[in-house]
Amino acid sequence: MSITWYLCVSAIVFCTGVGGVLTRRNPLVVLLSLELMLNAANLALVAFARAHGNQEGQIFALIVMVVAACEVAVGLGLIVALYRRRLPIDVDELRELQG
Amino acid sequence: MAEVTFFFAAIVALAGAFGTVLLRNPFYSVLALVCHLLGLAALFLLLRAEFVAAAQVIVYAGAVMVLYVFVVAYVGGQDKPLSPRHGPGMRAIAILFSGALLVEFAFAVLGSSLSVLDGEGTGFFSAFGSPAQIGEQFLTKFLLVFEIASLLLLVAAVGAVILARRRSGLDDPRELSVADLLRSQESGTLTDAERGSLQEAAGPPGR
């Protein structure tokens, strides 16, 4: 399989994630769509690593996974804090920073 | 054989991605994302990234998704109808933008004249992408990156605990906190005011 196929899959997954971030209102689903975008970037990185016969792209992908795990931890912490304060779990209604 | 595996894995990954975005119930979205991650791990294996595939399955599909499932179960999946305030106009614009991005990517990928994209990739040695190779790279060339990643994980874990802790304003008054117990033990004896309030709570003596 040529590398182009992998890049096409990566592009479609990334655009799906963009659509999810822009259209969904539940912050949990927005976070899941962010994961989709990060994973699409990972796929492209690993595909280029294979194309060049160089492992550094795979290391980059692993670091992206670390950053994604951090983002999930902080994002889910925020959602739990919102739920505890009885705020609506809806990104359209949460437009003020005032605590 | 590789073609069949590729198309199967790609279809699983794409179906998972669409399911994540389109399904109404957040719990089903999480399950669709797990499906997507497994398909992606198969693609990583096809690209000779064994360690990345293993980390993807164990860390992502295992640990991170369990976190998601717990939070969805805690918060509860609200099935609200989509965007009554902004109406379908904003949604159409959003879909239009992501479609435009896809067209742009398609031009970039298919229209590029990079010869490396047409082949299966350059030659590789047999241990390419194995855990031993990745670990050696991490501990020699990318040592600083490795340490920064561990520090970042620590900071994120502490930050998540602080964000999700119980706020003082919402405490249940019947709940005893460990810090209060420690404080009263440190001070040793009760002050007069506290003793008085304890007696009041117990009712008048000698009854």
Describe this structure in words.
The complex is a heterodimer of chains A (99) and B (207). By secondary structure, chain A is mainly α. Chain A has one domain: Helix Hairpins, CATH 1.10.287. Helices cover 77% and strands 0% of the residues of chain A. Chain A is built from 3 helices and no strands. In chain A, helix 1 runs antiparallel to helix 2 and helix 2 runs antiparallel to helix 3. Chain B has 207 residues and is mainly alpha-helical. Chain B has a domain of 92 residues: NADH-ubiquinone/plastoquinone oxidoreductase chain 6, subunit NuoJ (Four Helix Bundle (Hemerythrin (Met), subunit A)). Helix content of chain B is 70%, strand content 0%. Chain B is built from 8 helices and no strands. In chain B, helix 1 runs antiparallel to helix 2 and helix 2 runs antiparallel to helix 3. The longest helix of chain B has 26 residues. Chain B is extended and about 75 Å long. Chain B starts with a helix and ends in a 5-residue tail after the last helix. The mean pLDDT of chain B is 80.
Mean pLDDT of chain A: 88
Helix content range of chain A: over 70%
What oligomerization state is this entry in?
Answer: heterodimer
Write the CATH architecture name of one domain in chain B: Up-down Bundle
CATH topology of chain A: Helix Hairpins
Q: Which features characterize this protein?
A:
A: mainly alpha; Helix Hairpins; 0% strand; B: 207 residues; mainly alpha; Four Helix Bundle (Hemerythrin (Met), subunit A); extended
Outline the fold blueprint.
The complex is a heterodimer of chains A (99) and B (207).
Chain A: H1 3-23, H2 27-52, H3 56-84
Chain B: H1 2-22, H2 26-46, H3 50-75, H4 87-110, H5 131-139, H6 143-164, H7 178-187, H8 192-202
Helix pairs in contact in B: 1-2, 2-3
